[in-house]
Each structure stands twice: as structure tokens, then as C-alpha cells.
Amino acid sequence: MTRAADTGILIDEAAVRAEIAALCAASGGTRRDGRATDPRAGILAVLKRVNAEGREKARLLLVEERHGMRCAERLSAMMDTIIRIVYDHAVERVFKVDNPSSSEHMTLAAVGGYGRGTLGPASDIDLLFLLPYKQTPWGESVVEYVLYMLWDLGLKVGHATRRVDECIRLARSDMTIRTALLEARRIWGDEALFAELRQRFSAEVVKGTGPEFILAKLAERDERHRRQGTSRYLVEPNVKEGKGGLRDLHTLFWIAKYFYETDDTGDLVARGVFSKAEMARFHKCEDFLWAVRCNLHYLTRRPDDRLGFEWQREIAALLGYQGHPGLSPVERFMKHYFLVAKDVGDLTRIFCAALEETHAKPIPVLDRVFGRAGRRRRKSLPDTPQFVVENERLGIADDGVFERDPVDLLRIFHVADKSGLDFHPDALKLITRSLRLVDARLRDDEEANRLFLEILTSRKHAETVLRSMNETGVLGRFIGDFGKVVAMMQFNMYHHYTVDEHTLRAIGILAAIERGEGGGEHPLATDLIRKIQHRRELYVALFLHDIAKGRPEDHSVAGARIARRLCPRFGFTPAETELTAWLVEQHLTMSIVAQSRDLADRKTIRDFAAVVQTIERLKLLLILTVADIRAVGPGVWTGWKGQLLRTLYYETEPFLLGGHSQLSRDQRVAAAKAELGASLADWPAAARERALARHYDPYWMRVDLPVKIAHAELLRKSDEAGRRLATAFTARAFEGVTEITVVAPDHPRLLSTLAGACTAAGANIVDAQIFTTTDGLALDTIMVSREFPADEDELRRAERIAKLIEAALEGRERLPEMIARRVVQQKKPPKAFVLPTEVTIDNDLSEQFTVIEVSSLDRPGLLYELTRSISDLALNIASAHVATFGERAVDVFYVTDLTRQKIQSSAKHTVIRKRILQALDETGEAKAAKKAG
Q1: Cβ(694)–Cβ(775) under 8 Å?
Q2: Which of 321, 563, 714, 756 has the greatest number of C-beta atoms within 10 Å?
Q3: Which fold has domain 479-657?
Q4: pTM for the whole thing?
Q5: What's the CA dihedral at 751, 757, 758, 762 to 10 degrees?
Q6: How high is the pLDDT of residue 31?
Q7: CB of 476 closer than 8 Å to CB of 483
């Protein structure tokens, strides 16, 4: 919206005009048609220079002042100047007409964002060449000259050449053209012609069509939000098109200008649409978003409005953000961004409420916008007369409701959950304006806390109602610690949403699990939630699990401390409080153990059982972990992660029930052999005995019977074929992985070769289990992430991977060259992420193996480099477990030395750590140079 602003002067118009005049004078001569010679190349050079200088000056002023609106207005004013100069040169020198007819004049108008008097550094320039009558040769020549000059300046120009009649006709039928004309601003040319357009547009298009326009713009906004992602809390937001971005403010501008027929935002205050404070917030949001967008355009040198990770650090520095204990500068910047996006949402609600109050939209249209039907009705609710149902939405009886009883600020959300009603915009506006009533007295009020707990643990609409509480600001004020994580982002590629949005989504997922929805994806959690005894503690723990993010200390430990403080306020007993705090403190434990530990190792299970201690805790932790992972973002939850969690649960359950020590190790091995022998009863006796004698004890204790049978059949076919190399594969749709089994002569580099072949094939290994037979064969099973939804397609892919593995093992394919090509093709993490590689070596996690854990920046070929380094150290890898958290990879290897013993020497540990760090820290160029040397 237009308002007084210091746009500044980026170029000296008089000086540029004088320089061009001098060029024209110096060129001398005339053309055959009698017109002056056009020194076009020289003029273009002048305009390129002043355009570049002006843009650089605007950038420097942006860095100095950090005012985005000023930058956008300065760039728009500079472009006006350039267009005026080019147009005047065209009509006064190149295509001069001494006695112009009524058809030989035109108006140049800016439309779109440029029409608002704002322009991003890399934005398109939208122009309307307005003609009085039909196009003439003179008009065609001028338009062509202006456009080619602008194009040769390197500008992206969208344009239309129309008569006033055409503009009016098209605006009536096309909402996009109508919106563009709504924003039209005269740059230069015939004033009367432009005035005629404005007058006829108002009288013939705008008059009486306000409801139609408002409905179209709000529907257009909703569709844009759907395309961009319905949440305004995506960690790589689109500054222009995303929810809470500039386009949402533009939508308010369009509607206000159309309905209130004003360019002055001050009119909106005078009309009671916004208070002065809210209008100031509007301008502050607009200025901030423009600052981000302008800096983004300058950095990317293109019209890129996606605020990607690779630019967030630099923009945070340009805007002057400083670090804070627990929060980096970029995280503070992005928190501010999301708070601004939230403010934009608040302003949108307030604006829509004002439109309804003034009946800007007829009731039938209003009903369609908000998804309701029927006539306007207003009725009181029996048990809560302070609230009313107006047009099937929850409203307030009068403006003094919350002043009389602040508990109603919680009660209205409780009623919304029970009734399933949407909120009336007037109610939301009053809630937002009553936040000062959420004070210490209300936080300690027993009834208020009871209402909040019932909302949080509701099986109905908990996520929706809590999100409304968060959007209005009530949630962050009532639970002060939650207010600290509102709009907080974590600067990593793993979390797709801000902390508060992630938490609310997790609550929604938990409620869905309790309702039995999506049981096919997490059957165990769906089954267990019906059997738990402490559902309130589970919901509260999930609500609090990330509440201490952004603090210098471990957020799990700090979150448990917050839980111990808050739970008594919710009416929990000491035992309930302690259980909730334990769930918060351990909320990451099950995920970490499941994804990065060998679940076939008895010590892993025994140690985890010692942490959990009871079956009830195990159930609660499993359900909480599922909801937490699923709420991280699209694609984060996989069937394989679900399978790992189920395996950990089922392995731990006997320990907690006391059944884990009923059989000795020898008895379990004997029982496993007998079980397989019975399954192979139809085999020849010699073949059956060979199969039972072929494996060492760990194999019998770690592998399930169906897999043992498949392994036995694969080994027998290999023997009968006289080959010591064989592969098999199975698509496991539910787990979202494909299992590839390889039989090959055992050697230390085998897993490295498998990892390299998978890298070359573009397959992502998520787990590997390695066994050696008594006759010197390796029996390795790797799990790769599934790529295709149909089994037949996935099996064809698995066959290609298996053939590549065989070719690599037989020396028919050279892996280094194939891997190098694949690494170049695959997407790497943005340069914004720099993670130091950490290598941890532990002898206490397993009774048989030394555990090497490597945490580093994920990249193509990482597992291949790691396994090759470990092989170079003459270590045997018994199992590998691969977990990826956005840009961070955590690879865990269970290893022994060549005598199958743990690595006990601290000196050897130092060598292992040093060699792995050296291997991973070398760049591809350094390796190539080393090889060439």
C-alpha cells in the first residue's frame, strides 16, 4: 500500500538525460526519413552503467539501513526513471511526430507488484502500454523500441498493449487482469488517458463486485497455500508465495483497495479495520519480508523467493542477528521470520473479521468462503451463555466476556473442541487483543489448567484447537516455556517444521493413533495405545518433549525439569509427574537404540531394558517415539524405522518379563539348529547336516527362522552350481526396504565392495548384517531403501544392483570410476551445513564387539569411504547400522580384529580414529592429486 517513504535517489535523472542528449548531438547526421541518427549502442551503455550503479547503491543502502521497503521503493523509482528516459528518447528523437494525431500518444503504466511502487532486485517488470484507439505504426514502433531497450538492459519485462475498452472488457472476465489493473500506476505519458482508465475501471468493473473479488482472492490464496505447503512454519519458506509471506499481505492490499477504494493504509485505521498498533505491525511485517526478499535476490542474482538453507546464514548476518545461548544467529533470524509470518496470519484474521462486520461480503458468499451454508443465525450455548453460535461458528456474546472472567480465554477453546465448531473471526480478534489477561493468576488457576489438560488430551480435535490457541498467542502465554519455542527453527535438514509446529503435529498424530487411524503404518503402536494405563502422561510428555529446545543444555534433561515443575500445576500426582518427566528425558532413547545399535546383540537389549525398567514405560515410549518421528516431516518416517522399533520392543519385552535367562546360550543354539533341521526335513540327510554345521553360534542366535531357511536354500543352490558367489533379493514393501543377500568368499573388503556397488547403483544402504560360514564364505545381508512402489519394478531394480555387486566382486566392473560418476550426479547437502566428523569407539556397548560410531555430514559415497577405511585397518565388520538425520549421517559398525576379538588397545583406538578422520576429511581433489602424485 502506498505511503510516504524516503525512496532515495539511485540515479540522477537530469544528468543521464544530459548525457544521452550529448550522445545524440555528437552522433549528428540524419537518416533517409529525415530523422536524427539514433546512437542506440551508446545510450544502452549509459543505461546499463547507471542501472548497475543504482542497483549496487540500493544494495549498499539495504546493508546499511536494513529497510526492505525502502530498497524495493528505490528500485521501483529507479526503474520509473529509466523507462521515462527511454520513452522520451523514443518519442522525441527516434519516432518524433511534429503534429501528432489523437491516436499518436499513449500511457506507460506499471502493473503487478511494480504497480505498487515496489520492485525486488531480480523481479520482473510488468508494463501496460495504454492506447487511446487501435494500434498504429507509430505506437507499434515506440512500444517495440522501449521493450527492446529494456530487454537489452537484461531486464525481464512482462507487457500488454491495450486500449481502454479492451482493458475493461478483459478485467470483467479475468480476475488476474482485474487484479493487475487494480494496481496500475502511471509511469509516464498521457495523464488523461490513464485517468479515463481509472474512472471506467472503478465504475464499470469494481462497482458492485466486491464480494465476487474478495471470494476469488481468498480462494486463490488458499490454493497458493496448498501448493506451497499448508504450514507457515516450513523451515525453507517461500518469502513471497508461502503462508505468512508477502503475497498474503498483497492479498489484504488488493481486497482493501477494491472494497474500501483507498491507497492509503491510514484509512483502514480510520474505518476501524486495524488499530494503530496493528497497522504499525502490518508495515513492520512488510518491511521485514521485503528486507529478506531483497537480500535473497541480491545473493542469488535471480528471482528466487525460496529462503533455502544455503542463504539463511548470510541473510542473518546481513540483517545483523547475533547468537544467543542455545540459539545461533541464523536460528534467531529464522525465529523472527516465523513470528512475522504468524503476525501476517493474525492480521489476515483481523481483516476478515472487519470485512464481515461491515458486510463486505453477502452472507451466502461468506458462507462459501468459510465452508458453511445457511442464513445468519445467532444463538446462545446452554451451559456457556457467554459464547454464542453465529452462522455455525463459535463467537462471543459481547466484548466484555474475557474481562469479566479470564478463564473464558481457555474455556472458549474447550467448547470449540467439544462442539467441533470453527471460530468466528470476531472471537479470534478479541482473543488476540486480550492476551494481557493471561497472567500468573490465570496460569495458576485450577479450572484453567483442568480445561487446558482436557483440550490437550482430547481424542477429538486436539491438534486443531491447540493450533488455534498457538496462532492467537494464548498457548505461549499460558504455558510460558512453550512460548519460548514458538516459531523456533532448528538449523538442519532433518526437521521440516518449527519446534511448536512439530509438537502440535505430533499431538495430532498421537490422537490419530488412538482413534485407530493409520494402523497399517504403525500396527504395534495402534495396538498398544489401547492397553496403556497412563494416557494423560503420554499426551503431556509429547507436548513437553521439545519444550526446552534452544537452551545451552541437553533439551531432554532440561525438558524433564520443566515437566517436574509444570505437571503438579496440571493436577498430577508425584508418581504421574515422575513418569511424565522420565518420558521427556528419554524421548530420543528408543529411536537412537533402534536405528544405531545391533538389536541382535543381547547386551544392547539388556542395557535398554535397564533404562526402561517396566512394560508400561516400554509401551509409552514406543508410542511417543512413533508420534515424534512421524511429526518431523514428510518422508522421515519409513517402514524400516517402524520395523526396527518393533524389533526393539519385542526383544526387550522378555527381559522385562523375566524370561530372557531361562535358556543358556548353548541351549538356544541347539534349539535353533533343531528348529531349522525340522524345517529342512525333506532335504537329503547330508545336505541337511551340512547346512546345520555351516554357521557359528552368533548366526543361530541372531537370525530368524524364515531367513535361515532362505539362506540355507541359497547356499545349497550355490554348492550345486559349483559357484562360491551368489545373490538373492526380496522386496519388503511394508518395511520400505529391499533385502539383498550375498554369498561370496570372505575377505575384509567385502562390505566395502557391496557399499561401493550400491553407491554406484544409486541405492541407499540402511542396514547390513555380516556372517562368516565355517567353510570360509561370507553371508552378508544388506537392506537398501525402496525406490519404487510396485514390487515388480523394485525387484527389477534389485536384480540390477545384485548383478552389479557380482560384477564388482568378480572384477568385471571398476568401482572407483563408477562411484566418482555417481557422486557427481547425486545431490549434496547445501554448503550452509558444516559438521565436524566425530568418531567414537566403545567397548562397553557389546560383549563381543567393539562399536565404532561415526557422525558426519552426509554425502554420496560416505558409507563406501567408511567401510574401505575400516577394511584398511584390518578390522572385521560384523554389522553396520546406517541412520540419516537430514544432513547428518550416523554410521555404526560392530567390529573385531582378525582374531575375532575386541580392540582393547587405546593406542589402536587412536589409530582407528585418526585414519577414519583423515579418510573422510580428504576432498575429492586432494585424493585425485595424491593419486596422481
Answers
A1: yes
A2: 563
A3: Hypothetical protein af1432 (1.10.3210)
A4: 0.81
A5: 160
A6: 56
A7: yes
